């Protein structure tokens, strides 16, 4: 539990940067999924989180910042900033 709280503090300071192709009005070709967020978190910050713990009710389909809840422990939920920009 203490580890989860420490990890929460770390995760909440991070911004995950994802680049993708987009069309008019900032709409993405495709979408950003919890799997992509989990992979970026591990690759860029060496933090391994199961994609099922990333609470993304539906995939991100627009450019910009999105706050995404990440369940780190039964009682510990961090809010991760995901920034999707044009490739």
UniProtKB/TrEMBL annotation:
Residues 2-85 form the Large ribosomal subunit protein bL9 C-terminal domain. The keyword Transmembrane helix does not apply. One of its GO terms (cellular component) is ribosome. Keywords: Ribonucleoprotein, Ribosomal protein, RNA-binding, rRNA-binding. One of its GO terms (biological process) is translation. GO terms for molecular function: rRNA binding; structural constituent of ribosome. InterPro entries: Ribosomal_bL9, Ribosomal_bL9_bac/chp, Ribosomal_bL9_C, Ribosomal_bL9_C_sf. Pfam families: Ribosomal_L9_C. It comes from the Bacteria. The keyword Cell membrane does not apply. NCBIfam families: L9. This is 50S ribosomal protein L9. The gene is rplI.
């Amino acid at each position: 539990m203490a580890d989860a709280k420490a990890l929460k503090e770390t995760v909440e300071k991070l911004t995950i940067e994802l680049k993708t192709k987009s069309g008019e009005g900032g709409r993405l070709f495709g979408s950003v999924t919890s799997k992509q967020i989990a992979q970026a978190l591990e690759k860029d910050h060496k933090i391994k989180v199961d994609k099922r713990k990333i609470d993304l009710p539906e995939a991100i389909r627009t450019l910009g910042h999105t706050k995404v809840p990440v369940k780190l422990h039964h009682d510990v939920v961090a809010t991760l900033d995901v920034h999707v920009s044009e490739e």
